[in-house]
Amino acid sequence: xxxxxxxxxxxxxxxxxxxxxxxxxxxxxxxxxxxxxxxxxxxxxxxxxxxxxxxxxxxxxxxxxxxxxxxxxxxxxxxxxxxxxxxxxxxxxxxxxxxxxxxxxxxxxxxxxxxxxxxxxxxxxxxxxxxxxxxxxxxxxxxxxxxxxxxxxxxxxxxxxxxxxxxxxxxxxxxxxxxxxxxxxxxxxxxxxxxxxxxxxxxxxxxxxxxxxxxxxxxxxxxxxxxxxxxxxxxxxxxxxxxxxxxxxxxxxxxxxxxxxxxxxxxxxxxxxxxxxxxxxxxxxxxxxxxxxxxxxxxxxxxxxxxxxxxxxxxxxxxxxxxxxxxxxxxxxxxxxxxxxxxxxxxxxxxxxxxxxxxxxxxxxxxxxxxxxxxxxxxxxxxxxxxxxxxxxxxxxxxxxxxxxxxxxxxxxxxxxxxxxxxxxxxxxxxxxxxxxxxxxxxxxxxxxxxxxxxxxxxxxxxxxxxxxxxxxxxxxxxxxxxxxxxxxxxxxxxxxxxxxxxxxxxxxxxxxxxxxxxxxxxxx
Length: 525
Hints:
The chain is of the alpha/beta class.
């Protein structure tokens, strides 16, 4: 394993104590609260502290957000879009500061931080360019052509609650919120307790772009307190996180009869088919599995290699993993950074140890690297994983890949689908083979000759999970319209559709005859 030179990470000078303190002061609390220190996973240093919010703080945040939302809903969509466009520009103008913040609170490599900033920017640009068209009133077929005019309008739901995770603290806090804002809603956000500053800086940039002061509220604090209070007050809930927590929140949302969408866990497969480009597939696994230190819901955790290419692919993959650069720092050469928290590192170590104890073989990696920092773990490949090992079926959410040799593509498809999850999948093959395999996989997104980024970056297309991997879709028109209530407005001309001036039997015969003839009454068309 090649490792980057160990040195004390140096952040840009803008991220000094005064700057981080100003960000913390924007947290929506109503009184002086105890603070929580935020630690850098690279070296354990304190990068800042944020208030520990309460349910009262959440209630006050919703009051402010609701007042601001009424005026925002009346703001023309094009004016909202202009703010999102300016936000897009500001994300690039302040890119270095944003990347430093993301890395400082997550420990990820700079390339992964860049990916996050880029995705947030292109999402803002996408909804800036498309919101007016998607939200425009749509004419639909009326019951009686010429007499019935039917139009569908889309109204904002009100205040959207967003509960975001630690692994993508910018894009998973803000990208869904951007769509909700474009639709005319306000936001109350709970970022993860260990990664609040990326979201706080993004909200500062949104306000600099022209977003009204109280429209986007951020309350930091524990999920059991702040998250619960958000669920109890919001008009729609967006959650990204574990499947177990998602089930609990879905139940709470259903009790209140509010809309709910969630991107949840994944145990995502990659298939290397018999006609795959071996060199490209090796690099694809490196990116698909070890980007963001493996902390992706869409990250590759299961690898199925067809027997005919196993002997070429596996040695090349092992050599490439061993050559990866692992370390702490803000430069671009490091391929993989730290594990974001001690608890996550503990989970990774326990799952690998359990698999090895039950008979798994480590091909490379498999151990922590305290010589690089307190929370580092080598990118790891294992094979011979028994079915009763947690690693075989449970999400590890780290840089660990389980590898299986399969006879052919049919066996690979069957094994890939043999899971309760269905978020993302990757297929390496010639395009025709890849499409044939992809359409048989039970996953919300399938990337052919790419790990996850191709679908993730295709922001005009919906993204989400099948089975236990989620509810609803983010991105695309679907990702915007979920934050609206559809309203059908119908104008009936000349006479009421029930035609009360005719005898009921005469009306029934007339209507039935026309329906059978297929000439008028385009009901259900």
